[in-house]
Design brief:
By secondary structure, the protein is α/β, with parallel strands linked by helices. It has helices at about 5-10, 25, 40, 45-50, 50-55, 60-75, 80-90, 105-110, 165-180, 195-205, 230-245; strands at about 15-20, 95-100, 115, 120-125, 130-135, 155, 180-185, 205-210, 225. The protein binds 2'-O-acetyl adenosine-5-diphosphoribose (OAD).
Length: about 250
């Protein structure tokens, strides 16, 4: 059941900004990081998602990313992703989507104005000359990919201790500040600066809505938290909004 105020605020909103986390892809079959079945329950981020670990054992890190890449290539975006594409059609250039996910599912679903805060698993780059590569898959014989310049190639994802891509985070902060309505979907609110975006939106006057299976560390920063699956709640919101707009 969607509270009436959510649709009322969306009807008035000109600028809608969204933050997504691993939860929005869970219904597509991508494991989340925390909570039940979370990746970090079994694996240690300091061994896999960290630059020093990569330099110590690039083969292990590449194997892990290739395993995730294979998993992602076999799955599809879900109704949550597609509902955000619908919202972008409604709000046009007033819509933006900041995601912590590296799985590329928002782009595959058709979202356009996407800020990739933690990179994208389908891109890689040379740590020496910064040349970008797409769809880089480990060469079994060489174990680790190398650039023509001789530099080692790494996945274009943000690891622990690294800065976020400057333009993406600046655009996300600006979108949060300017938004009339801010959604935070499927994120546990553990990792900053992304987890700070809903608070920025609220302090700048946006109506803030969280969609998650459960309350999170940042739930207090929202006007409303809807508990449930994003793949159920988002299509319902889009349906009600379309009905009211016609
Ligand atoms: P988490 O794994 O920390 O949190 C996922 C959240 O999604 C949890 O709060 C779940 O309750 C919720 N959830 C699960 N299924 C859901 C569903 N169907 N509908 C709605 N919510 C659902 O993922 P993130 O918050 O994205 O960073 O994690 C942030 C960052 O931590 C990741 O980007 C990654 C990780 O370490 C890096 O790798 C840099």
């Amino acid at each position: 059941m969607i509270p009436e105020i959510v649709i009322e605020k969306l009807l008035k909103a000109k600028r809608v900004a969204v933050l997504t986390g691993a939860g929005i892809s869970a219904e597509s079959g991508v494991p989340t990081f925390r909570g039940e079945g979370g990746i970090w329950n079994k694996l240690k981020p300091e061994e896999l998602a960290n630059f020093d670990a990569f330099m110590r054992n690039p083969k292990l890190v590449w194997e892990w990313y290739n395993m995730r890449k294979n998993l992602i290539s076999d799955i599809k975006p879900n109704q949550g992703h597609y509902s955000l594409v619908e919202l972008e059609k409604i709000y046009g250039s007033g819509f933006s989507l900041a995601t912590q996910n590296i799985d590329n599912l928002h782009i595959r679903a058709g979202s356009k104005n996407v800020f990739e805060l933690h990179g994208n698993i389908e891109r890689s780059y040379c740590i020496n000359c910064r040349k970008y590569y797409h769809d880089m898959v480990i060469d079994e014989n060489k174990a680790v990919p190398y650039c023509q310049c001789g530099g080692i190639i790494r996945p274009d994802v943000v690891w622990f201790g690294e800065n976020l891509p400057e333009e993406e985070i600046n655009l996300s902060v600006e979108a949060a500040k300017q938004s009339d309505f801010y959604f935070s979907i499927g994120t546990s609110g553990n990792v900053y600066p992304a987890a700070g975006l809903p608070g920025i939106a609220k302090r700048n006057g946006a109506f803030t809505l969280e969609i998650n299976l459960e309350r999170t560390l940042i739930s207090d920063e929202f006007d409303i938290t809807l508990t449930g699956k994003s793949g159920d709640i988002l299509p319902e919101i889009v349906k009600l909004l379309r009905e009211e707009r016609t």
